[in-house]
């Protein structure tokens, strides 16, 4: 049982459009796996400054900087290409992060 909600940051180019779609997908994965989460959205330029305030970062664009928390692209949640594999990987990573809280 996790001690507190997992703090998730979801970033896209503008912080509005695709991050909203990705947030819905991540929220559904959390619900399916019984993970309590708090999700916030941002644009890609804010990822580095916000990463230290969250437990995990998901992006809809490629992000190459090293972060102090796990990072994963969830573009497949938007495109549908390879979606099931990404949902599993995302869920497994979320469970791992939640187990450490």
From TrEMBL:
Pfam hit, one: PTS_IIB
Origin, by domain of life? Bacteria
The record's section on InterPro entries has: PTS_EIIB-like_sf, PTS_EIIB_2, PTS_EIIB_2/3
Using the record's annotation, list all stretches that form the PTS EIIB type-2 domain: 6-98
- Drop me one GO molecular function for this one: protein-N(PI)-phosphohistidine-sugar phosphotransferase activity
- Record key words, sorted: Sugar transport, Transferase, Transport
Please identify the protein, giving its name as recorded.
PTS sugar transporter subunit IIB
Q: Which organism is it from?
A: Mediterraneibacter hominis
């Amino acid at each position: 049982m996790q001690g507190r909600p997992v703090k998730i940051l979801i970033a896209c180019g503008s912080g509005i459009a695709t991050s909203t779609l990705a947030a819905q997908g991540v929220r559904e994965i959390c619900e399916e796996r019984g993970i309590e989460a708090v999700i916030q959205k941002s644009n890609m330029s804010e990822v580095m400054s916000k990463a230290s305030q969250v437990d995990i970062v998901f992006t809809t664009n490629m992000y190459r900087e090293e972060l102090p928390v796990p990072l994963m692209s969830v573009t497949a949640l938007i495109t549908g290409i390879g979606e099931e594999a990404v949902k599993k990987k995302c869920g497994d990573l979320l469970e791992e992060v939640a187990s450490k809280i």
